[in-house]
Every structure is written in C-alpha cells, then in structure tokens.
Design a protein that fits this description.
Pfam families: DUF4147, MOFRL. This is Hydroxypyruvate reductase. The chain has 16 helices and 12 strands. The two termini are 19 Å apart. Helix 1 packs antiparallel against helix 11. The protein has a 6-stranded parallel sheet. The protein is α/β, with parallel strands linked by helices.
Length: 422
C-alpha cells in the first residue's frame, strides 16, 4: 500500500477504537434501585450519551451533557448543550450550573453516571464566586499560548472552578457516582481528564499559583488572592463525599495506538509504540523523532525497515508568531525541517478529535518532498514555523487531514513510516 493511505488507515483505526458506541457498552454499571441521572462534558460526551442510552437496560430519569459546537448527537432522554472550546463561553458556564442543580438532593439509592472526555475543562467553565467568565476566558487564552503542559493548565483550572477538582462528585453525595471516561491526557490521570470533576485532587492552590508565576500569567488581584488564600482549594483524598465514586476508563491513547499497530501489521509493516504520553514543545519533540527515524532508515537501529513509529500524548506550542497554530502541524513542519527531505520517511500527525489547535483540521501528512513543494509554492518552511503557521503550510500543499467531528478524543496521534534508506 502507498504510504499516505496506510497512514490514514492507521489513524482511522485509532479513532474507531475510541468510538463511544464501541467502548461504552462494555463498562456499564449495575442499575440502581432509585433514579438514574446522566451528566457529562467533553467533545465525545454527546456520542457517549447516545451510546449509554442505547445500551442502558433501565430508565434514565434526567440527563444533561455539554459538548463542543458541532459535536451534538441526538438523544432521547439526555439533553445536549453545545458550548465553546478551547476558550469557554456562557453556554458552558450555564450548563455547568444546571448540572450542579440537577444532582442536588439525590439519595443513596440513586445513581449518577458522569460521561467525561477531552475538552471537558473548557466546556465546564463555572468559575468560583467573585471570578467572572470574562476573566476565565482571558486566563484560558493566556494558558493555551504559554507553552504550559495540559497537567499544569488543568491544575490552574481546578483551583479556580466551582465544579472541577472533585466538586461535581461532592455535589452528588450521597448518591453513587460512576464516571465513564475517555482519556485524552498523557498517563491517563483521572484528575487531568476534564480537570477531574469527579475525583479527589492531590494538587493545591499553592501549586496552581506557582504555575501562574512560572509562566508569567497576569491575573487580577482578587483571582490571585483566591489562590494565595486557599479559597479555591479542591476536594482532597479521604473526603467522605467521594466514598461512593467509581471511575472507569473506557478508552485510552494506548488502546488507540495498539489499534493502529494492528493495521500496520496487517500490511506487513512492523509497528513500534514508542510512548502514549509524550509531552514537550512540539518542535523539540519533532527533532527527537526525526533523529530516531533517520537512525532507523540509515542503520536499521533500533528497528529494521519497513516499520512505523507510533506515539501519542500532548505536545505544546509556545505561540510567538501570528499563524494559525496547531501542535500537530507544528510538529510535522518541524519534523520536515529536521528530516530535510530524507527519502523513505513519511508521517501523519493529527488530533483524534478532528481539531488541531483552533482549526477545524485534524492534522496533516508529511512526505519527503513536502519542503520542496513548499518552496515551490512560495513558502519558507522555517519562516512559516517561526510564525506558528503549520496549518497554512500544509493547507497550501493540499496535505491537510480534515475529518470533521470524530465524536471522540484520545489525544494526539503520530505515525512515522520508515520504508528504507534516506
């Protein structure tokens, strides 16, 4: 098979492995003797709600999930609200407040099923009292452009939220809470998936304040005071309100990479999963990956060719230019520069939710002649990278990968196909 169709098949298999209709039915809790309430947030939450409705053997008494605009799926008993991502809006704020109202006053015999997936942090933006939505929006923009890791970003979010960091589960007490989660974070840490609305949090306000200072994020005095005083402290391990909480990972980046590896093997190409939790600046990760691919191509070490090098995780981009961003296309453009047209190395990098950065583009393809074609189109690859405009580069070549909403999210997917000597 030609490199590009093979890479695309691997990406599609990775996405399919995390489809809610495939993974939700295998993780259903037992029905309660009381009410069943379904709530949730994330880019996959509407599809998760539909899958849950189709598989649930009992009644659903009430339901509300919030998803990204364009990611709605029709449901019968669960209301779907659409809101903004990655910078939150009033619709997400109102939905979060309604969820807290919906779970108030439940009994021990009741069940709350919480459907969580990537994007939930932005889609549940309910700030602490005294902090405005506009201030949360400004903070989100600054954090997203700062180069902070997703774990650092979510630590700050948790400590300025009225619903994250275990607060949603605490509000459900004394009902039983079962969280069904699709992981989009390196290491699958529940506290980082949608900023952990249903799990206890070991991090503190002091940790969040240190992150704010480390990245030079400007905050109003009263927001800084909320962190400095401990007003925004999250729910900690041992809190009795979380004793009935049950957390189940239904899809993960590792499982997605394994699905892609099976596709490669079916075409006689050995697949090697390097890691499902790679973090760091996208362009620096690209340099390391290029060095590995060149070693494989030139010396057959540590793997013989043909082979594909698979990885997941969530890289970051420190935005300094005026381009359209996207960590996966930034990775690919930096990879292409590092490979410098080496023959026999092709790559795909994309976000499994179909959105890389703030563009409705999942990612792109890189071929050995991509840089040459860029020059022929009047694009200087290094200048384009400095401007953080990977999307502009690959779109001009016709090499963007556009999927539309995938209704799931297991984070970044990277595949480097090495077919022979450079």
């Amino acid at each position: 098979m030609e490199p590009r169709p093979l890479l695309q098949q691997m990406f599609e298999a990775a996405v399919a492995s995390a489809r809610p209709d495939e993974c939700i039915p295998r993780h259903l809790p037992s029905p309660p003797s009381g009410k069943t309430v379904v709530i949730g947030a994330g880019k996959a939450s509407a599809a998760m709600a539909r899958a849950f409705e189709d598989a649930w053997p009992a009644e659903i008494d009430a339901g509300l999930v919030v998803t990204r605009y364009g990611y709605q799926v029709p449901c019968r008993r669960v209301e779907i609200v659409q809101a903004a991502h990655p910078v939150p809006d009033a619709a997400g704020c109102a939905a979060a407040a309604r969820m807290l109202e919906m779970v108030a006053g439940l009994a021990p015999e009741d069940l709350v099923v919480v459907l969580i997936s990537g994007g939930g942090s932005a889609l549940l933006p309910l700030p602490l009292p005294g902090i405005t939505l506009a201030q949360k929006q400004q903070l989100s923009r600054k954090l997203l452009d700062s180069g902070a890791s997703i774990s650092e970003i979510n630590c700050v979010r948790r400590h300025l939220s009225a619903i994250k960091g275990g607060r949603l589960a605490a509000a459900c007490h004394p009902a039983r809470v079962v969280t069904l989660a699709i992981s989009d974070v390196p290491g699958d840490s529940p506290v980082d998936i949608a900023s952990g609305p249903t799990v206890a949090d070991l991090t503190t306000c002091a940790d969040a304040l240190a992150i704010v200072h480390r990245f030079g994020i400007p905050l109003p005095a009263h927001v800084l005071e909320a962190l400095a005083s401990g007003t925004g402290e999250s729910v900690k391990p041992g809190d009795p309100r979380l004793c009935e909480e049950d957390y189940r990972l239904v899809a993960t980046p590792q499982k997605a990479l394994e699905a892609a590896a099976q596709v490669a093997a079916g075409h006689g190409v050995a697949a090697h999963i390097l890691s499902d939790r790679i973090e760091g600046e996208a362009r620096e990760v690209a340099k390391a990956m290029a060095a590995i691919a060149l070693q494989v191509a030139a010396r057959g070490e540590p793997f013989s060719t043909p082979c594909v090098l698979l990885s997941g995780g969530e890289t970051t981009v420190t935005v300094r230019g005026n381009g359209r961003g996207g960590r996966n296309v930034e990775f690919l453009l930096a990879l292409g520069i590092a490979l410098n047209g080496a023959a026999g190395i092709h790559a795909l990098a994309a976000d499994t939710d179909g959105v890389d950065g703030r563009e409705e583009i999942a990612g792109a393809f890189l071929a050995p002649d991509s840089l040459q074609r860029g020059w022929q189109s009047g694009l200087n690859p290094k200048f384009t990278l400095d401007d953080n405009d990977g999307h502009g580069f690959f779109q001009a070549l016709g090499d963007s990968l556009v999927t539309g909403p995938t209704f799931t999210n297991v984070n970044d997917f990277r595949a480097l196909l090495v077919t022979g000597k450079p």
